[in-house]
Amino acid sequence: MSHDLSDVAGFWVDSATGVLTDISGDINNLSINGGNALIDDTGLGDSNRTEQRDLGAVKRMSITFMMNSTTEAIFAPLVAAGTSVAKTVQAKLRTGSYISGESNVGAVSLSVPVGMQTGTAEFSSLSGSGFDHTSVAL
């Protein structure tokens, strides 16, 4: 079995004008979080802690990106406004494997050190069932 490499991966997000924009070349880290989280369901009077599995949907994506005119136009207004907006996001894991859907943009951070300017952004699925995993791009 071969391992997937990042050269086949990609990431798209709505631009400030609402057009799905490929910013794959500006992303240096993509994290997709889901799976079965544990929910504490210990009741009063229980002598031991008990947990049950949560639904296993992919609920969050986060990216680390390099700043340029494209990423600045998408993310700087979100930092300045201090508010969340809905954006469509799509992650390509490999050919024929996409995770996508509508999301709320969570924390956005821009970093301006000496040298390369970077940023981070988090996306949470608007759907109770999480993001979609399909074999077809949006």
Please explain how this structure is put together.
- The protein has one helix at 69-81; strands spanning 10-14, 20-22, 27-33, 38-40, 51-53, 60-66, 86-94, 97-111, 118-125, 132-134.
- With 138 residues, it is mainly beta.
- It has a single domain, classed as Pnp Oxidase, Chain A.
The CATH topology: Pnp Oxidase, Chain A
CA gyration radius, whole angstroms: 17 Å
Report, as a whole number of angstroms, the end-to-end distance: 28 Å
Q: Please trace the helix and strand order, writing H or E for each element.
A: EEEEEEHEEEE
Write the layout of secondary structure elements.
Layout (H helix, E strand, L loop, with lengths): L9 E5 L5 E3 L4 E7 L4 E3 L10 E3 L6 E7 L2 H13 L4 E9 L2 E15 L6 E8 L6 E3 L4
Antiparallel strand pairs: 1-2, 1-7, 3-6, 4-5, 6-9, 7-8, 8-9, 8-10
Quick structural overview:
It contains one helix and ten strands; from the N terminus they run ββββββαββββ. It is mainly beta and 138 residues long.
Main attributes of the structure:
two-stranded antiparallel ribbon, 10 strands, single chain, mainly beta, eight-stranded antiparallel β-sheet, Pnp Oxidase, Chain A, 9% helix, 138 residues
